[in-house]
Design a protein that fits this description.
The chain is mainly α and 205 residues long. The radius of gyration is 20 Å and the shape is elongated. It starts with a helix and ends with a helix. The relative contact order is 0.14.
Length: 205
């Protein structure tokens, strides 16, 4: 492998990682509080979860295309790609946050209430810590999925490892396709392993 290709792989890998990290950070900031909120607002659950479900069912390339003409968030480039990746990452984090908190034993909540804890204290000192492994599992799934979906971002000029894949498809060049697919696959496996390790190490308290 020549030096030029190696440096390009490194640059596009870094670009890919940046896209994923930004999208995941925004998705976590949005989905975890939303998941907590709908544990307290049962009437909102069908609407919030339904929206996340719909976003998940739209084909990824189509979603990128739909967002391009949208004012403020659309256009060609990284901004549109990040918005699309965030929308795709919402569902597993949202659903696992909801499931984790609702799955806390009611007896534990009652004990905390009997000890004089407020609703806010019960949430942050009891429910969220007990639900942390479930929430982390959702973040793990969303991260691995986002790494794969981010390869499509190259179709709208957002860069990343998808540049090699689309270039390889256009020129029927297997080497180019592998240059994009292999680092993305390794990245997904590494993220899955690292987040899985964190998930196993997290303790309920």
């Amino acid at each position: 492998m020549n030096t030029g290709l190696t440096s390009e792989i490194a640059a596009l890998t870094l670009e890919h990682i940046t896209l994923v990290l930004i999208a995941m950070a925004i998705a976590i900031v949005l989905a975890v509080p939303a998941g907590v909120l709908i544990t307290r607002r049962a009437a909102w659950r069908p609407w919030v979860v339904g929206f996340a479900n719909v976003m998940q069912t739209v084909p990824s390339l189509a979603l990128f295309g739909f967002l391009i003409p949208v004012p403020l968030i659309g256009g060609i480039g990284k901004r549109t790609a990040v918005v699309a990746l965030v929308l795709y990452a919402l569902l597993p984090i949202l659903r696992n946050t909801l499931a984790g908190i609702l799955g806390v034993d009611p007896a534990v909540r009652e004990s905390a209430l009997a000890m004089g804890m407020t609703g806010r204290q019960i949430l942050w000192r009891v429910e969220v810590p007990l639900a942390s492994r479930t929430i982390l599992a959702g973040i793990r799934v969303a991260t691995v999925t986002t790494i794969g979906t981010a390869t499509i971002a190259a179709a709208i000029g957002a860069g990343g490892l998808g540049v090699f894949i689309f270039r390889g498809i256009a020129s029927v060049d297997t080497t180019q396709i592998l240059a994009g697919a292999m680092p993305a696959a390794c990245m997904a496996l590494a993220a899955d392993g690292a987040l899985g390790w964190i998930e196993r190490r997290s303790k309920h308290f």
